[in-house]
Amino acid sequence: MKKTFALICNLLLLSSVATPQAPSGTQTPVVLTHVTVIDTTGGPAQSDVTVVIRGERIVEMGKSGEIRVPAESRIVNATGKFLIPGFWDMNVYWYDPPAYLALFIANGVTGVREGEGYAEDRQMRDEIEAGRLLGPRMVVPTRWITDVRVPAPNWGAASGILASNAEQAREVIRAAKQYGADFLQLGGTEDVSRDAFFALADEAKKRGIPIEGHVPASVTVEEASNAGLKSIDDVPSKLDVEILPACSSHEQELLKLWQEAIARRFAPEHSETPTARRAAYRARMQLALDTYDPRKAEALFARLEANHTWLCPTLTAQRNSAGPPLDSDPHLKYVSPANRNWWDENPYWLSRDKSAEDDATRERVYQKYLEIIGAARRAGVGILAARQGKNLTLMFRVSACTMS
After folding, report:
1. CA 337 to CA 327: how far, in whole Å?
2. What is the C-alpha separation between 331 and 401, in angstroms, rounded?
3. Alpha-carbon distances, residue 131 vs 134, 144, 255 (angstroms)
4. For the chain: N or C, fewer Cβ within 10 A?
């Protein structure tokens, strides 16, 4: 029996992928014997299987004892172990040293989609593809495309990419193609105008580059999907809560409230306190919950499915924001000192800077999101699995990033 699919096997030695690969025909095969295979087709697990791997491909598999094992093979007795296809984490923000990329492989994640792309990310992507760096396959976008008036003179800058009007938006697409971005990434609360958004979508379609990310407050979810947005990266723990308001009978009112919240946050004379911001968030979310319309949701899901717009709900962000602090989690030892320091300076990420009211609201929103995402999936909408957070935000705590 022959089968080829992406390999993820935690029981394999990391050295098999850590060094540059020779052509697959000349490599020493690795043979797993007596392994249980889960092929994710929905069928039952296949026990006592022998799998022959050459290079990056599974070239043969079948019942142990029925498969000819090449004489020069490296044999791994995998009794009691499982072999499954590789996981993808579809919303990664990576600012750590390249060496930390190996943690993805160690936890079964063989592919990642970056949520924000820099020159360093594209370099790591190319190094991994060339076999010079151990890490997952990387799909790297542009930096966040925003309407914040922060200059972005080159693609190595730390700021987002400014697209405050239609012409700037079209120039972003041309630059993205030139610098090798795999897709365009719309920012979150750093909004873009309607004119800029539709110019981005039009130019992206003309030039054949996907556009993904957060739905601006200037357009509805349905408008964004109709314009060609390939995926919606919803972050239910922040301001940009897209799908829940889109299912509300008061969608336009919620959009207006959202626009006003963004305007306050980025106003030059900004003086809104965290307490006031959290109160406004609770009020918006309660309105969205109270006005949820199942028929409107059903129509929206049908539109998303027809347009092939996927959802990346990042539910672990909501779960963690409503859960206990992460300070004492033993897996913090895998997180870089720079990130631990960043969390100490930004207590929101460790779920400490919030009240009991905040917890209660986030829990209600989280439970509603579980219901919404389940309904969307049953309606045929594609779902992208991800943990949302800062780099390796306790990916281990959320089951290797795959259960959101």
Report:
1. 13
2. 14
3. 7, 28, 46
4. N
Judge whether 328 and 394 are in contact, CB under 8 Å: no
d(CA 168, CA 200): 9
Residue 183: what pLDDT?
93
Cα atoms found within 13 Å of the Cα of residue 170, Cβ hemisphere only: 7
**Residue 250: DSSP 8-state:** T
Give the CA dihedral 169, 172, 174, 180, nearest 10 degrees: -150
The rounded mean pLDDT for the chain is 79
pLDDT tens digit sequence for 218-249: 899 999 999 999 999 875 545 445 799 999 99
Lowest mean pLDDT among 72-76, 154-158, 206-210, 344-348: 154-158
Residue in this structure with the two tokens 């000349």, named with its chain if needed? 26
**Residue 266 to residue 245: CA distance in whole angstroms:** 22
Q: Where are the alpha helices (DSSP H) in 107-193?
A: 119-129, 166-178
Residue 157 in this model has a pLDDT that exceeds 80: no
Is the four-CA dihedral 302, 303, 308, 314 of positive or negative sign? negative
76 forms beta bridges with 32
Closest CA to 299 of 379, 187, 226: 379
Is the separation of the CB atoms in 107 and 164 below 8 Å?
no
Cα separation of 267 and 273, whole Å?
13
Residue 330 identity = P
Question: What's the whole-model pTM score?
Answer: 0.79
